[in-house]
Structures are given as C-alpha cells and as structure tokens.
Automatic annotation (TrEMBL):
It comes from Caldichromatium japonicum. The keyword Cytoplasm does not apply. Belongs to the short-chain dehydrogenases/reductases (SDR) family. GO terms for molecular function: oxidoreductase activity. It comes from the Bacteria. This is SDR family NAD(P)-dependent oxidoreductase. InterPro entries: NAD(P)-bd_dom_sf, Sc_DH/Rdtase_CS, SDR_fam. The keyword ATP-binding does not apply. Keywords: Oxidoreductase.
Amino acid sequence: MFNSLSPQSLQDRVILVTGALEGLGRAVTLACAAEGASVILSSFQEKDLEPVYDQIIERGYPEPAILPLDLEQAGEAEYIAAADRIGEAFGRLDGLAQCAAFAPYLSRIDDYDVSEWERVLKINLTAPFTLIQACLPLLRLSEDAAIVLTSDRVGHKGLAYWGAYAAAKFGTEGLMQVLADELRGSSRIRVNSLDPGILRTALRANLYPGEDPSHHPLPETVAWAYVQLLGPEGRGFMGQALRIEQDRLVPWTACS
C-alpha cells in the first residue's frame, strides 16, 4: 500500500499522540494536524507542549488540545482522569498513536541497573497498556478507531546491550497481538504495531553520541505511515507488525 493519502484524510478525527514534544511524536502530531485531525498532544508538562500547539495554530490546522501526562510517575487514577478529560472535551477518541519512548543507555545484562530496568519497562510498555485500557471506552465510541503502537527492530530480534528497551518492545508486540485478537470481530477498533526504522532523534543520539546523525532520516519522513494507519487508508490492517519499505507498509520479518 503506497503512501498516497487523500486530501485531509483525518478530517474531523480526534487523535491522541504520546511523546508529542519532540522527535517522532512531534512529527506525527504535525502530520495528523495537517490531515485535518484534532490532535491531543501528550507529554510530561503542559508548558513544554505550547510551542507545538502554537505551531499547529500558526499553520491554520484544527485547534489541538494539550494533555500533560507523566508516563513514569502516573498511576491508574491519572490515566483514567486523562481519558475522562478527553471524553468531556471530545466525546470520543478516533485514534491513539503511541510514540513516546525512553532508553537511558546501552548495557550488558550483567551490568543493567534493576531500577532503570523497571523504569524503562514502565515508560515503554506499562504506560502504553494503561493508557490504552483507560481509552478503550472512548475508542469504542468511534465509527472507525485505530491504535498504532510504535515498535522497533530490537522488539523483533533481540540485539546485545539493548536490555530493557528491547524487552519492552518485545512486550509491545505481544500487547498488540493480544489486543488485536480480543478486538477482532467485536469492535470497530484496529490495532497494529509499526517499526519506523532508525531515525534522527534525541533518543538515538543519546544511545550513540559519537554517531553522525545525518546518516539517518528525519522523523518527518515516516509520519505518513502513522497517518495512513490512523485513517481510512488503514482499514486493511489489523493485528499486524509493520515496517516501512520504499514508501510502503509491509509486514515485519526477522530477516529484514
């Protein structure tokens, strides 16, 4: 399936994007807004998201909303309260793009700090689960809802030193498969995972400080794939682990 999107393919849809402050999340946020969506920007603090909010307004896109949510510190009550705020403001949710990610360092399992392991799993796996669970009632109110979980190559084939981040991404794939199997045939919610590939992000720079970042594409070059999965063009995808190849969404395979 090619990335030829119809004009305003997300018109009138309400889309929640986590990690909207920078990198992939910011790129997906702006792409969704450009396609006509009312985007709910989520990151740690409201003031951090104001520049993204202003950029959307300046471009003449639909007015977004800000939903501050600390994925490390928030508990079940905070996620339920966040979903309630979305429900009060919009009455439903048409899409959730989970783009937030955290990886502190690369390390051998021998040396991995246990508290950091737990932190990475909470932000990358437990937080997405808790947010999805809280938002499922709102997603069920949509005529055509979609969840996109951001995956990674190390969530399909484990690589040395990726530690908790790889374990969390393997868990992401498991969460996607279980949720898809539960929702298939019983709701209008689609759920898939997407490995966007190696991108020029702050997370990558933190893990590989000596690497030349110009070797990797910008997040903006893959944002179309999230738009496609969140909109009507994504109706053919359900319960699939996907990656991008030559501007197409294709199934992920371990040999890739």
